[in-house]
Specification:
Helix content of chain A: 40-55%
Oligomer: heterodimer
Radius of gyration of chain B: 22 Å
Mean pLDDT of chain A: 95
Structural class of chain A: alpha/beta
Number of helices of chain A: 8
Helix content of chain B: 25-40%
Order of helices and strands of chain A: EHEHEHEHHHHH
Largest sheet of chain A: 4 strands, parallel
Strand content of chain A: 5-15%
CATH topology of the largest domain in chain B: Rossmann fold
Low-confidence stretches of chain B: 71-117, 176-184
Distance between the termini of chain B: 36 Å
Number of domains of chain B: 2
Mean pLDDT of chain B: 77
CATH class of the largest domain in chain B: Alpha Beta
Largest sheet of chain B: 6 strands, mixed
Low-confidence stretches of chain A: none
Order of helices and strands of chain B: EEEHEHHEEEEHHEEEEEHEHEHEEHH
CATH superfamily of the largest domain in chain B: P-loop containing nucleotide triphosphate hydrolases
Shape of chain A: globular
Distance between the termini of chain A: 12 Å
Number of helices of chain B: 10
Shape of chain B: globular
Strand order of the largest sheet of chain B: 7-14-15-3-16-17
Chain lengths: 179, 360
């Protein structure tokens, strides 16, 4: 299956490609390259996306965004879901949405055993969805050894099942892929 | 109309260039590709293969030319080009195919210094940066020139087309026009075409021969001159070359070399270096205009350079990549051309390069 990943590139799309590859053997392709988070909302993004979807044959799209807030912040969630709803209209097949709570780095805190192993830490588990600014927190607990541009490498060292168990935003995608 | 251009190059066995076979368009060819994929190796190899003093010798490389002017083919025949080259033994398998294509095979023969008729294929190569020292452009020349009965003098060796043009223009005029004893004449005439191009396509408002230029033509046998160098007008102020910014220096160098170019082929590496986007846009307009006379083979990392192309010129893009340690050069596949055209309908060609899979 050709799975198109749409989001901040390369960090987010390549990280999620690596994460899903731990469990599901599909072809994961970043649909738009070299676009930052702030460049996912403008008219140019929409135009680029239309062209790519018209010229590519994907079986499934996964849209990835950072919420930059907690899941109970309804206004922020609504804005992101509106973005997803508007953009998935350009694709006639199925689309899924991975809305990271605060940021992609919250995923690391959902597999604390692997995180400790990667950075030689002794952290205790806490709910990854309750961490305010997980990127900043990850940089702090690793004494700045965590580098955002290596997120995709680190994420491939996580235990997929542990992430799935503790990271609610991934569940819909997993349910879809495992069928 | 240009007289000749490269239609195809088959180059083998030099650094990452193991076996490259690529065709070229008559006007602009733009090679893009990630760092380290062999773009510079290719340009160096191509330039060296066509130059008099070859450092790279190879028995299996071919470069094909085509003339867009039948008179040029006659010219080649009339000067016994084929015979001379064959006799020289350097290009062993040179031949005309269908009376239109000249086939040159690199060999391991001697250098071509004595074959002036091959000058047409020696390309103008503009590499990264600019040469370390440029007489007249950057450094003043002080010299003595001996007058000879034929009316020509030997101008000091120069390392740029512009300096050569000034030399030829000036000293030819000196002998044929200027009465004996005259100390000066309007040498700036030789700069007219350059000044036209600079004012149209660059931030340089003009160049002139330095105000301290001095000449003594009173001697029967020799001409003495000193302080022959150029000054550059930027924002109304006359500056020396060394006072220009790095970007302006290279811009001037590119424009002057192309203005006075007497070759058919221009190899240009990364025209964008050090240039403001607006300046680069103007430079590419200049190059596009010049491509009516010369064939350009350009390497670039600049999306703006790619945007020079129209939707019917997408075959002018060449992608450089590395496969199994070897440089590969390829034109766009039909589906890539279709996608590029889709991009160009709504966006810029550069968006395809930046945000999609043009190079993949």
């Amino acid at each position: 299956m050709r799975v198109g990943l749409i989001g901040e590139n390369p960090n987010d799309t390549e990280s999620i490609a690596n994460l899903l590859s731990l469990k599901y053997n599909h072809q994961y392709i970043s649909v738009l390259k070299r676009r930052k988070g702030g460049q996912l909302d403008n008219a140019k993004f929409t135009a680029l996306l239309e062209i790519e979807l018209r010229n590519n044959n994907f079986d499934l799209l996964i849209f990835i965004r950072d919420l930059d807030g907690f899941e109970n912040e309804a206004d922020k969630v609504r804005v992101r879901e509106k973005w997803f709803a508007a953009n998935k209209l350009h694709f006639k097949k199925d689309s899924l949405f991975l809305l990271n709570i605060h940021a992609l780095e919250s995923i690391f805190f959902s597999d604390i055993v692997s995180l400790n192993k990667i950075f030689n830490l002794k952290l205790n588990f806490s709910n990854p969805l309750s961490i305010n600014n997980p990127k900043k927190e990850l940089i702090r607990v690793t004494s700045e050894r965590y580098k955002e541009n290596r997120a995709a490498d680190y994420i491939s060292k996580l235990d997929y099942n542990a992430v799935l168990k503790n990271y609610k935003p991934l569940k819909d995608i997993d349910n879809y892929l495992k069928v | 109309m240009k007289k000749a251009y490269i239609t195809r190059a088959i180059l083998k066995d030099y650094l990452t260039i193991k076996n490259v076979d690529i065709t070229f368009n008559e006007d602009i060819n733009i090679i893009i590709g990630k760092n380290g994929t062999g773009k510079t190796n290719f340009i160096n190899y191509l330039a060296d293969s066509l130059s008099e003093n070859q450092a790279i010798k190879n028995n299996h490389s071919y470069i094909y030319f085509k003339s867009s002017n039948n008179n040029f083919l006659k010219e080649i025949k009339n000067i016994k080009f084929l015979k001379e080259v064959k006799n020289n033994g350097f290009f062993k398998n040179l031949s005309l195919k269908d009376n239109k294509v000249v086939n040159l095979k690199n060999g391991d023969g001697e250098n071509l210094n004595e074959i002036s008729t091959l000058d047409f294929i020696i390309p103008l190569k503009i590499s990264h940066g600019i040469p370390e020292s440029l007489k007249i452009i950057q450094e003043p020349i002080n010299d003595v020139i001996r007058k000879i009965p034929e009316g020509y003098t030997v101008f000091p060796d120069t390392d740029s087309s512009l300096a050569f043009a000034i030399g030829v223009h000036y000293f030819t005029k000196l002998h044929s026009i200027i009465p004996k004893g005259t100390k000066s004449y309007n040498i700036n005439e030789s700069l007219n075409s350059l000044n036209n191009n600079l004012t149209k396509y660059s931030n340089i408002e003009g160049v002139r021969i330095g105000q301290n230029f001095g000449l003594d033509n009173s001697d029967k046998n020799e001409i003495y001159f000193n302080n022959l160098y150029l000054e550059y007008n930027i924002n109304g102020v006359w500056l020396s070359f060394n006072q220009l910014s790095d970007g302006t220096k290279r811009l001037f160098y590119i424009i002057s070399e192309i203005t006075y170019n007497d070759r058919f082929i221009v190899l240009l590496e990364e025209p964008e270096l050090g240039l403001h986007p607006h300046q680069l846009y103007d430079l590419m307009r200049f190059i596009k205009e010049a491509s009516e006379k010369f064939q350009f083979i350009i390497t670039t990392h600049s999306p703006m350079v790619l945007n020079t192309l129209n939707s019917d010129e997408l075959d002018n893009i060449i992608i450089s990549s590395i496969e199994n340690g070897a440089t590969q050069l390829k034109h766009l596949a039909p589906e890539q051309i279709a996608k590029a055209q889709a991009y160009m309908e709504k966006m810029d060609l550069s968006d395809y390069w930046i945000h999609s899979d043009l190079e993949d």
